[in-house]
Design a protein that fits this description.
By secondary structure, this protein is of the alpha/beta class. It is built from nine helices and 15 strands. The strands form five sheets. The protein has a seven-stranded mixed beta sheet, sandwiched between helices. Strand 2, helix 1 and strand 3 form a beta-alpha-beta unit. Helix 3 packs parallel to helix 4.
Length: 298
């Protein structure tokens, strides 16, 4: 649940994006600039947050009126091993050290819906239990706690945004779901499902996550919010949406299932209450935009 420091939207002096240049960060930068919000992107090539000496450099560029958003992190396709976990934790340690040496007006951490343990309930909300099920989710839980404690000590308003699976044009992760389905449908003329694609999941358009982050910055919100929009859809039905948007013949293939069927549904009432001005992108529209992006890059 969120608490707004500002009852009405207030333009921040500047937004610093830690981990600029990535899939979400690039869309976030565009959304903020379209709203005439000054942005200071910090790319990994400028400051490597895994470097032990990076904390001083981050602290030096932060200003007291900054809102800081951190989408920086190595995602599962970069590795699911201990080495990747430790690199991600070093990023969190670096930012905590920088915050301890400087003052900012607001800090927003981009986490993941993977922190929720869906074994006990298939209907999840911001109060659901967070339990690590792998090293990636352990990392996000640990960084939420690390950054949260530092912000409390420094009296910095702290917000956590936990997106469900993000999709959209320009995706670099190729995860199972909209991004992979669109790519293989457009490039190879096929979509591969695990089992019959029965599992139901939420998916969120990348531009919508950027808009939710913007809403939080404008209200200087604190607390936790899930970036989940619409209703859960099965992967088979999702594939049908992609095929309809692809505009070409697409074969549907099924591989033997390796894991039992599980569903994940999200109660999105908290998001609607927090930001009634936010309007989500319909799945059909988001998929069409994603297809257009893949076709344009072909």
């Amino acid at each position: 649940m969120l608490t707004h420091q500002f009852p009405n939207a207030v333009q921040p002096a500047r937004v610093v994006i830690l981990g600029a240049g990535g899939f979400l960060a690039s869309n976030l930068e565009r959304v903020l600039e379209q709203a005439n919000i000054p942005v200071r992107p910090v790319h990994p090539r400028e400051i490597d947050l895994t470097d032990a000496a990076a904390a001083d450099r981050v602290a030096a560029l932060l200003e007291p009126q900054d809102a800081v958003i951190m989408p920086a992190g190595l995602t599962p396709e970069k590795g699911r091993d201990v080495a990747t976990l430790m690199k991600n934790l070093r990023m969190g340690e670096c930012v905590c050290a920088a915050l301890a040496r400087s003052s900012v007006a607001h800090f927003v951490y981009v986490s993941s819906d993977g922190v929720y343990d869906g074994r006990f309930s298939s209907l999840l909300n911001e109060d659901s239990s967070t339990e690590p099920t792998d090293l990636y989710t352990l990392m996000h839980i640990a960084r939420e706690l690390m950054l949260g404690q530092t912000c409390r000590e420094r009296k910095i308003p702290f917000m956590v945004v936990r997106p469900v699976a993000i999709y959209g044009p320009g995706d670099t992760h190729n995860s199972y779901g909209p991004n992979r389905f669109v790519r293989t449908a457009c490039q190879d003329g096929k979509i591969t499902l695990f089992g019959g694609g029965e599992e139901k999941r939420h998916h969120v358009f990348v531009g919508d996550v950027a808009k939710i982050l913007k809403c939080g910055v404008l209200r200087r919100s604190t607390g936790v919010i899930n970036a989940a929009t619409g209703e859960a859809i099965s992967f088979r039905d999702l594939a049908a949406v992609v095929i309809a948007a692809a505009g070409r013949e697409v074969a549907l293939e099924c591989l033997p299932r390796a894991n039992p069927i599980t569903h994940r549904h999200f109660d999105t009432a908290a998001l609607a209450r927090a930001f009634p001005e936010f309007a989500a992108t319909p799945l059909v529209t988001g998929i069409a935009r994603t297809v257009a992006g893949v076709v344009e890059r072909a």
